[in-house]
């Protein structure tokens, strides 16, 4: 059986089989992940659970069949614009997908992560470029996926893993690859996106390139719960040593906020946490130094990056503060993402909110998230304008919370305008992620015996079919009550 021709029910079985394999192997997978990433056992077990949940979520998506988006227009000699042929449209898998795994989520955005799950659910074979930060875990996870393929009766070549960077680039240029997905740095993502676009037959490249995720706190919210804002912010910056694409990178507080000492003390109390690998440690050290050296920067918590006896490079949080004017003047030094436990507090004049609005519009063209902290019942023209501004620049707009922690649910949007991603209309988390790897095709006046199962009148796959009956067009615009 070929995955591209498999039924939704067969794909459901495959995804559940992968979830079963990973669950059964948890005590083998988690220690290996700990050894290669330095992440804590509780964090990794939670992430493995998330990975299993998203596999089962896509299994349900397949079982429901709505992702095929079947539309059938019956032949209609009385169609208002002239005779209409029989038209039948549904979504096909685009073909083999190349997935570049991420380092910071060794389960959820790696071998059996969301990109792999959504591509397999769409019916696409997957070739995965493993991340060099956890090669043994990648090989072990791939072994479990292949075991599930065998259980589901699918050929082994449905899923392959490569480890060499040159192999990943070569495959991206291969004409048989129909789409690619990537989570990682801006520089590498831009380079790969250029290769995908420069092919003789360009392909879609779904790249998540990072984000600084601004947070705006109104004066009323600060007056209502200043300590809660401070503790939540420090937790968001320091969690997993700030190695999260949704870490809050900028916190906008009103002048005179009075939280400098509170923020500094909370950050100083956070113990050192390993950075994922030497490359991240080097890049973070360089980025941190550039921020600390920028004119106008005041240190709230200096933090540190230190080599530990156990071989890991450990980091503690660095928090700095600047005024809004200094942020604008030093934008070249301050705006780039710092992938690690560093964030910037920005003071703004609450009596001149338009200056903040203008700065956000100029400095943040695209981000995965933005957050607004407002007081209970707060509702004014400036706040509504701020919300309208931010929603144009992000994929997820949060209120009175923190962006770390991405729920795996149908309504989740994990993507955003460039430079956060290369494809702002798509998501890499949630059920809509499957749409990246589907392509619509219409069959016109196709003989019944040649129709794909999803488009047949007897509907052997039992998938939802949206029908436009003959004669219905004369009532368009005049719905029957």
TrEMBL record:
Question: Cross-referenced PANTHER family, in alphabetical order?
Answer: ALDEHYDE DEHYDROGENASE-RELATED, SUCCINATE-SEMIALDEHYDE DEHYDROGENASE, MITOCHONDRIAL
Question: Could you name the domain of life of the organism this protein comes from?
Answer: Bacteria
Family annotation (Gene3D superfamilies): Aldehyde Dehydrogenase, Chain A, domain 1
For this protein, the record's SUPFAM superfamilies field holds: ALDH-like
Taxonomy-wise, where does this protein's organism fall, top ranks first? Bacteria, Bacillati, Actinomycetota, Actinomycetes, Kitasatosporales
Protein name per UniProt: Aldehyde dehydrogenase (NADP(+))
GO function terms (MF aspect): oxidoreductase activity, acting on the aldehyde or oxo group of donors, NAD or NADP as acceptor
Where does the record place the region Disordered?
Answer: 453-481
Q: Which UniProt keywords apply?
A: Oxidoreductase
Task: Identify the residues that the record assigns to the Aldehyde dehydrogenase domain, covering every copy.
Answer: 5-351
Check the record and name the Pfam families matching this protein: Aldedh
What InterPro entries does this protein's entry cite? Ald_DH/histidinol_DH, Ald_DH_N, Aldehyde_DH_dom, Aldehyde_DH_Superfamily, ALDH_KGSADH
């Amino acid at each position: 059986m070929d995955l591209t021709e498999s039924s939704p029910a067969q794909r459901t079985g495959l995804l559940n089989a992968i979830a079963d394999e990973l669950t059964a192997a948890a005590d083998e997978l988690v220690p290996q992940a700990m050894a290669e990433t330095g992440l804590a056992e509780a964090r990794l077990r939670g992430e493995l659970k998330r990975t299993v949940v998203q596999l089962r979520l896509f299994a349900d998506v397949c079982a429901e069949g709505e992702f095929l988006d079947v539309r059938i227009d019956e032949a209609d000699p009385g169609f208002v614009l002239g005779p209409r042929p029989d038209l039948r449209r549904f979504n096909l898998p685009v073909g083999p997908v190349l997935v570049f795994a991420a380092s910071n989520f060794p389960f959820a955005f790696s071998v059996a992560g969301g990109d792999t799950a959504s591509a397999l659910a769409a019916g696409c074979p997957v070739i995965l470029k493993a991340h060099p930060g956890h090669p043994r875990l990648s090989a072990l996870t791939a072994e479990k996926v292949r075991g599930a393929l065998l259980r589901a009766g699918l050929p082994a070549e449905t899923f392959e893993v490569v480890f060499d960077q040159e192999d990943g680039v070569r495959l991206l240029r291969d004409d048989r690859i129909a789409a690619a997905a990537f989570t990682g740095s801006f520089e590498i993502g831009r380079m790969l996106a250029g290769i995908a676009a420069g092919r003789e037959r360009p392909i879609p490249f779904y790249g998540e390139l990072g984000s600084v995720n601004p947070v705006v706190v109104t004066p009323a919210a600060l007056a209502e719960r200043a300590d809660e804002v401070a503790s939540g912010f420090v937790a968001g910056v320091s969690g997993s040593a700030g190695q999260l694409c949704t870490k809050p990178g900028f916190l906008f507080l009103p002048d005179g906020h009075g939280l400098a000492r509170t923020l500094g003390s909370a950050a100083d109390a956070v113990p050192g946490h390993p950075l994922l690998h030497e490359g991240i440690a080097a890049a973070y050290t360089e980025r941190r130094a550039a921020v600390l050296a920028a004119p106008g920067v005041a240190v709230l918590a200096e933090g540190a990056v230190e080599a530990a006896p156990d071989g890991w490079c450990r980091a503690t949080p660095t928090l700095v503060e600047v005024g809004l004017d200094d942020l604008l003047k030093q934008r070249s030094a301050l705006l780039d993402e710092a992938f690690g436990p560093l964030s910037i507090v920005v003071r703004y004049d609450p009596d001149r909110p338009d200056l903040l609005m203008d700065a956000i519009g100029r400095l943040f063209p695209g981000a995965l998230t933005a957050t607004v902290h407002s007081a209970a019942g707060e509702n004014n023209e400036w706040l509504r304008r701020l919300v309208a501004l931010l929603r144009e620049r992000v994929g997820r707009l949060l209120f009175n919370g923190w962006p770390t922690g991405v729920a795996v649910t149908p309504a989740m949007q994990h993507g955003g305008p460039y430079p956060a991603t290369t494809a702002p209309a798509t998501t890499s988390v949630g059920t809509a992620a499957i749409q990246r790897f589907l392509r619509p095709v219409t069959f016109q006046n196709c003989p019944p015996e040649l129709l794909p199962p999803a488009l047949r009148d007897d509907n052997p796959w039992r998938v939802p079919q949206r029908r436009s009956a003959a004669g219905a067009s004369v009532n368009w615009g005049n719905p029957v009550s």
